[in-house]
Amino acid sequence: MDASAGPGGHAGPRQDAIACRPGCAACCIAPSISSPIPGMPDGKAAGVPCVQLTADLSCGLFGSTQRPSVCASLAPTLDMCGLNREQAFATLTELERLTCPSA
Ligand code: SF4
Ligand code: SF4
Predict the structure, then answer these.
(1) Which of 52, 51, 44, 50 is closest to 103 using CA atoms?
(2) Domain boundaries along the sequence of the chain
C-alpha cells in the first residue's frame, strides 16, 4: 500500500496531508457513509466498522472500482487524523455529530 494513503489508499494533494497510520481505520468506523458499500448496500452508520475492513484494518476494496468514491477522495490530514488513533476517533466522532445531528 502507498504509505501516504489511508486505509486502502486515501490520498490527496492537500498541503497538510500526512501519511495514514497503519492499524487506525478510524475514518472507516467513526463516520457514517451514505453511499453504498459492497456488503453494506445502504452505507453504514456512524461507529460501525465497514465490512470491507480487513483483519489488519486495511481496506479490502483498495484499487477496486467498487470502492466508494468518498473513500478514495478522503485524504489523511493532521486535522482529521491527529497524532494517534484516539484523537482521530474523537475528531471524526465530533465531526459526525456536527454534520449529522441525528447520528
Ligand atoms: S483516520 Fe487518518 S490515519 Fe486513521 S485510517 Fe483514516 S486516514 Fe488513516
Ligand atoms: S470501503 Fe474501504 S476505505 Fe471505505 S470505509 Fe470501507 S474499508 Fe474504509
Answers:
(1) 44
(2) 26-99
